Amino acid sequence: MDEASDGRRMLWGLVAGEAAAVALLLAALIRFELGWPGVIALVAVVAAFTIAIVRVGERRAVAEGNASPAMRRYNRRMLAASALYVVGLLVAIWAHDSLALPSIAAFLFALAPSIGVLMMIAAMGRLIVEESDEYLRHRYVRSALFGLGTLLTIATLWGFFEQFDLVPHAPAWLAVPLFALGLALAQIRWGRE
Amino acid sequence: MKNRLKVLRAERDWSQQDLADRLAVSRQSVNAIETGKYDPSLPLAFRIAAIFDLPIEQIFDPKG
Fold first, then answer.
1. Domain range holding A39?
2. Residue A162: inside a domain
3. N or C: lower Cβ tally within 10 Å for chain B?
4. Any bridge partners for residue B60, and if so which?
């Protein structure tokens, strides 16, 4: 078993472990009404798994010969943006549920989780600008286009289904997670070429 | 586009990583170019030609 295969197996193991841990914690959160301590425990578990996944992913990239300084900076920026997003989201949820907000305060609290997501979008842009390896850049751009296609396809279908009352309303903030899902699927598909 | 990278590397006893280090690109880039999955840009093709001290057309075959 070579180092790259080990890295792949470990990566998939961590992803499966994170999914199982999140499912268990979510079930416990709802079943036992754990409230904010439960939410914080969930965030801590997700953060620990995410950092481990990034580290293993970077080791795998080195073993497979596609590591780059730009990708390393991208990973750091995404981790920082994700941390800010989680803090912003928790603050926004708390404010939404606990405070009677005047419109200007509502605007600021609604902006709080957006800042982390906007930083993620900026990090994706910086990666394309900073990646000096033209093949890795080509692969990332192709994956990003696949992510965009995924988002446009789902948004178009969902929008018309919603118009005909066939599906419930979907919030617009789902755009980035759907784009990221398409990007991730494309990177899994093309990442080993 | 076909190319002679693998042969040229073998003649010099270079691994893909050796060539990647000389070109300052990733090993996967060398692999993708070598196997014809990716055609390099003109600047990268010139860098490859310079490293092997050959004209571009003796490394890459546009008819391939």
1. 1-67
2. yes
3. C
4. B3
CB contacts of A133 in chain B (<8 Å) are 25-26, 29
Closest by CA position to A61, among listed A74, A79, A78: A74
Looking at the complex, does the CB of residue A4 fall below 8 Å from at least one CB of chain B?
no
Check if the beta carbon of residue B1 is closer than 8 Å to that of residue B62.
Answer: yes
Of B16, B25, B37, the CB nearest to A193: B37
Return all residues near A129 (Cβ < 8 A) that are at least 6 apart.
none
Token look-up 């598909």 returns A189
Distance CA B47, CA B23 (A): 7
CB neighbours of A94 closer than 8 A, spacing ≥ 6?
none
B34 vs A22, which has greater pLDDT?
Answer: B34
Low-confidence ranges of chain B (pLDDT < 50): none
* A152 part of a folded domain: yes
Q: Which pair of structure tokens corresponds to residue A172?
A: 């617009």
* Domains identified in chain A, total number: 2
Taking the CA of residue A105 and the nearest CA in chain B, the distance in Å comes to 48
Q: Whose structure tokens read 């490293």?
A: B51
User: pTM of the prediction?
Assistant: 0.82
Tell me how long chain A is: 193
Given the structure tokens 């470990």, which residue do they identify?
A10
Q: Could you tell me if residue A103 is inside a domain?
A: no
A66–B28: do the CB atoms touch at under 8 Å?
yes
Which of A67, A88, A108 is the C-terminal boundary of a domain? A67
Predicted-complex ipTM score: 0.93
Provide the token pair at B28: 């996967």
Residue that finishes a domain, picked among A35, A52, A67? A67
Question: What pLDDT is attached to residue A36?
Answer: 80
Judge whether A1 lies within some domain: yes
